[in-house]
Amino acid sequence: MAILGNAKEKLIPKVQNVIPVASGKGGVGKSTVSANLALALAATGRKVGIMDADVYGPSIPTILGVTDKPVSLETGRIAPVEKYGLKIISMGFFVPANEAVIWRGPMLHKMVQDFLGTVECGELDTLFVDLPPGTGDIQLSLCQTIPITGAVVVSTPQDVAWNVAQKAIMMFDKLNAPVLGVIENMSHYVCGHCGQKDEIFGSGGARRAAETLGIPYLGGIPLVTSIRESADGGDPVVHADPDSPAAKHFMAIAENLAAQIRIRGTQGSDKKLPVALSSPNEPQVWVEWSDGKKSVFESRDLRLACPCAACVDEKTGHRTLHAETLPSYIRATAIQPVGRYALQIRWSDGHATGLYGYEYLRKLSKIS
Q: % helix / strand / coil in the chain, to the nearest 5?
């Protein structure tokens, strides 16, 4: 059962912003990004905490070099460990080392509620929550238990990573938790000897996808040895070498995230969404925008403009879908809004993986 109303606020009443950091799949460096992003935001003078909610593989204590355990307060609640100016709490503090965690949904849900209900975070401007990869019970329980300001999604340039990251974005939208932005980790490799840049995982895939969906692109982080070494050593690069190029990437992303948090605070969530319609007898899609303007798309043209990875080459950005490969007659068989930023359209040729961001659609229709 979800916690509703004021009950959600009471769990962490002194925390202004809760920012889950998610990824669709493992291995994209989400935890390293979470730790450095928290340190970067704290370096601006904000009070920041980080919660490691990855019960299956908690790594924040290792990345931040935490060896102390939380202490119990007289109130019966638990005080987070403090290091590098961060308040840190991790599932790893309460799960025996080298012990596999095999918990089902109800147990995970209760664990999240108990965890949040017993931790005394104190006053924080921002609490980052490092989620496990994927779209499972931990993510669902968190969004049902505490008020989320907005999520950050970490991906890498490859199609396989971004395709799965999209599922995380859709999950947050279905849970009414906005996505504040996308971070592209390992955006390029920088040689430690000569400084040469090599885009070994492709170029700008997460940026292009974010722009297509109308989601803010917060920035890219290069694949450099110092980020890995500092995380393995328990002293993340933002703290260990704050003047390094790697640390400055995180600082810039933290500034962009802070801006999105401010925008979110002023906009609210009551903005009217566009309305999209199609007719079973007409090969057209109509979109009525919140500003009263209307767009009419020929269905075949819109199908050819699909921005998904099956229709666009991730490395070059060139279209791999060509008009001669499509049937002469195509229509939209179903149109489904995805959160507050995109439409998912199922076409009569069976294609349904493309997400058409509202900003992308306005550009296609040449509406400013």
A: 35, 25, 40
Burial of 84 (0-12, 13-18, 19+ CB in 10 A): buried
**Contact (Cβ atoms closer than 8 angstroms) between residue 90 and residue 78:** no
| 126 and 157 assigned to the same domain | yes
Q: How far apart are CA 325 and CA 323, in angstroms?
A: 5
Domain that holds residue 69: 6-267
| Whether 253 contacts 218, CB under 8 Å | yes
Residues 344-361, buried b or exposed e (16+ Cβ, 10 A)? bbebeeebeebbbbbebb
Query: CATH no. for residue 300?
Result: 3.30.2020.30
Residue 5 has pLDDT above 60, yes or no: no
Reported as a single tens digit per residue, the pLDDT across 300-359 is: 999 999 988 789 886 677 889 999 999 989 999 999 887 667 888 999 999 988 889 888
Q: Tell me how far apart the alpha carbons of residues 289 and 273 are, in angstroms, rounded to a whole number.
A: 7
Eight-state DSSP code of residue 92: G
87: CATH:
3.40.50.300
What pTM value is reported for the model?
Answer: 0.75
30 residue type, one letter: K
